[in-house]
Amino acid sequence: KAGVTQTPRYLIKTRGQQVTLSCSPISGHRSVSWYQQTPGQGLQFLFEYFSETQRNKGNFPGRFSGRQFSNSRSEMNVSTLELGDSALYLCASSLGPGGSEETQYFGPGTRLLVL
Amino acid sequence: AQSVSQHNHHVILSEAASLELGCNYSYGGTVNLFWYVQYPGQHLQLLLKYFSGDPLVKGIKGFEAEFIKSKFSFNLRKPSVQWSDTAEYFCAVRRANQAGTALIFGKGTTLSVSS
Fold first, then answer.
1. Cα separation of B94 and B90, whole Å?
2. Contact B43 A106 (CB under 8 A)
3. Is the pLDDT of residue A99 over 90?
4. How far apart are CA B56 and CA A64, in angstroms?
5. Positive or negative, the Cα torsion across A47, A31, B92, B107?
6. Average pLDDT rounded to a whole number, residues A70-96
7. Whole-number average pLDDT of chain A
């Protein structure tokens, strides 16, 4: 079974631009979560989607948004990029219904550099 | 708010030495506990997980962890490390039985194993 895939793998943008990252979950998984990983803050939760609905959101500004499609694929968007948005953005998928043994499996990430 | 504390930022060991990485969390309710590993240049992989039952869980590559509820701890152990265990290790906690809840990660411990 194929793992979580993320595109693009690397991205360079300039301040003020916007960016869209894509994530395809493991087949059969309906929940997609996004995390930001930086050396200073570590791994921080951005948001989680299940059946095209955002179920949970982390403590990030409104410039960070996401959506999920009917095939469970997800995109996240960052508008008006700032230097501090440079990070590795990780997507994780899980089955989703919220049973007692949900496990998240991570993709390789998209490394975003903002200049 | 939930938090996860990993006591050691960087651990340096020789091959065949024993390993114990500490992890403590702050949350009074029922939790699911995870250890993830990130090898150099690779994506985050699940090492082991605890949901319920036997508090001593075994994972891949000879790793094990013990959940001690009274100490809010979930320490990772391996009797004899190998050079290939060089990686960054993350402890993560999630509220159990709640759909859409986020993984809360510790800051990570970098393990360097010399041959």
1. 13
2. yes
3. no
4. 39
5. negative
6. 95
7. 93
Q: What is the dihedral of CA A90, A96, A102, A103, to 10 degrees?
A: -30
Residues of A with CB under 8 A from a CB of B: 31, 33, 35, 42-45, 48, 50, 55-56, 58, 90, 92, 96-109
Contacts of A106 in chain B (CB under 8 A): 36, 43-45
| Higher-pLDDT residue of B95, A36 | A36
Beta-sheet strand order (sheet of A19-24):
A5-7, A19-24, A74-78, A64-68
Distance from C-alpha of A58 to C-alpha of A60, rounded to nearest angstrom: 6
Question: In 3-state terms, what secondary structure has residue B28?
Answer: coil
Q: What are phi and psi of B60, to 5 degrees?
A: -80, 160
B30 touches chain A (CB under 8 A): no
Residue to mutate among B57, B103, B104, with most A CBs inside 10 A, is B103
> Which of A33, A102, A103 is nearest residue B46 as measured by Cβ atoms?
A103
